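Example protein was shown:

_____
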Amino acid sequence: MLSPVQEGCEARSFNITTTNAACGSLAVDSTISVQVNVTNAAVGTVAGFEFYLYYDPTYLSATSADTLPPSVFPMPQLTTKQFFPAGTVHLVGACLACSNTSSNGVLVNINFKILAVGVSPLTLAAGLSPMVTRRVSPCWESPTAQGAVFLVPTTADGYFKNEPTKLVRSPASRSCQPL
């Protein structure tokens, strides 16, 4: 799941839209941080992740990713950080000899430079799971020889929007109100 990082601002969805300057700037040449989160995962069941995130490179450019706290992992490591081709983020992370310590929380932070005024989807590729032989069901019900259990994830997408004429408050947008 995607969620924006903005101190002191309440997120109502997975979309990045601000209507109040106190929430931070979405101006061209600013940098924003977007979190990819895990939700409803039983403690001790997640030891790593791999995903692709797609966005419109006309408006955003992924510049970096990190697993700085807070994280659901006590000692996370990003083993793959690829930001090419433009519009694509491919990240692989693992918690070596450990697993998630909470059911909900941050997997990774992705930093984007804002390139232009407009709207960009933030789309996580649908989760995949390895298959056992030729069966249709995924192998999440049985551990691998190394003890890993593959889980079938679900994803929720969002979008980035900094176009003033299109900043409309709705349940599907992220907004900030003065404190």
Q: What stands out?
A: The beta strands are 2-4, 31-38, 48-55, 60-66, 77-82, 88-94, 105-114, 119-124, 158-161.
